[in-house]
Structures are given as C-alpha cells and as structure tokens.
Amino acid sequence: MAVTLTEAAARHVSRYLVKRGKGVGVRLGVKTTGCSGLAYKLEYVDAIEPEDLVFEGHGVKVLIEPKSFAYLDGTELDFVREGLNEGFKFNNPRERDRCGCGESFRV
C-alpha cells in the first residue's frame, strides 16, 4: 500500500511551501501520547533523509518515518474546512479507536 494525499491537501501544502520559500514536502509520523496511545505528527521539511519512505501525489512529496509506516500505511491525508475551522485530516484505515477529545488514536 502507500500513503496518499487529496488534491485539497496537495494544494495547501504547495501554497505553504511557496509561502515559506523553501521545502520539499511534508513528513508524517506518529508519536506516543494521549488517552488512546498514538497521535499524528506532521511537519514541513526542507530535505529528504536517507531513511525516509517517499510517496508523491499531485506533485507533492509525502515523507514517512520508517518506524511510523506500520501505523500509517494506507492513510490518506486530506485538508478540510469545517465552518471556521480548517486543518489536515488523516483518513487512516488502520485506526480502530479515537479518544473523545480527538487528540489520539489506536490501531
């Protein structure tokens, strides 16, 4: 499988990289935290690390930390606007439960 991103997410990342004036894409990973155990992390990156797994969609590179890939394989990164709020949304088929506050998840 792979990690993908929607057109909306790709447009948002592309605009932000242009605004920053540098960058090659976004790096996704997971960290241990919260009530359910894991939380997503996302950061804009300027360089590809040798250990990164690299996926590309709609002209944007998505870099995955190898240790996080087991949790993220099959995930689609989206960018959504809901009312006055906007942000990235992780559509992860491996996610089995999410805490009530929405901060963490478990597989």
Task: Tell me briefly what this model is.
This protein has 107 residues and is an alpha/beta fold. The chain is 17% helix and 45% strand.
Layout of secondary structure:
Elements: E1 4-5, H1 7-20, E2 25-33, E3 37-45, E4 53-57, E5 60-64, H2 69-72, E6 76-82, E7 85-91, E8 97-98, E9 105-106
Parallel strand pairs: 1-6, 2-5
Antiparallel strand pairs: 2-3, 4-5, 6-7, 8-9
Trace the largest sheet across and list its strands: 3-2-5-4
In one word, what is the shape? globular
Structural class by sheet pairing and helices? alpha/beta
* Element order: H for helix, E for strand: EHEEEEHEEEE
CATH topology: Hypothetical Protein Aq_1857, Chain: A
Integer average pLDDT: 88
Describe the largest sheet: 4 strands, mixed
In CATH, the architecture is Sandwich
Looking at this structure, what is the CATH superfamily? Answer: HesB-like domain
Q: What low-confidence regions span 5 or more consecutive residues with pLDDT below 50?
A: none
The percentage helix is 10-25%
Distance between the termini: 17 Å
Fraction of residues in β-strands: 35-45%
Give the CATH class.
Answer: Mainly Beta
Number of helices: 2
Rg: 14 Å
How many structural domains are formed by the residues? 1
Q: Tell me the total number of β-strands.
A: 9
Describe this entry's structure for a reader:
The protein is of the alpha/beta class and 107 residues long. It has a single domain, classed as HesB-like domain (Hypothetical Protein Aq_1857, Chain: A), CATH 2.60.300. Helices cover 17% and strands 45% of the residues. It has a 4-stranded mixed beta sheet with strand order 3-2-5-4. The chain has a 3-stranded mixed beta sheet with strand order 1-6-7. It starts with a strand and ends with a strand. The model has no long low-confidence stretch (mean pLDDT 88).
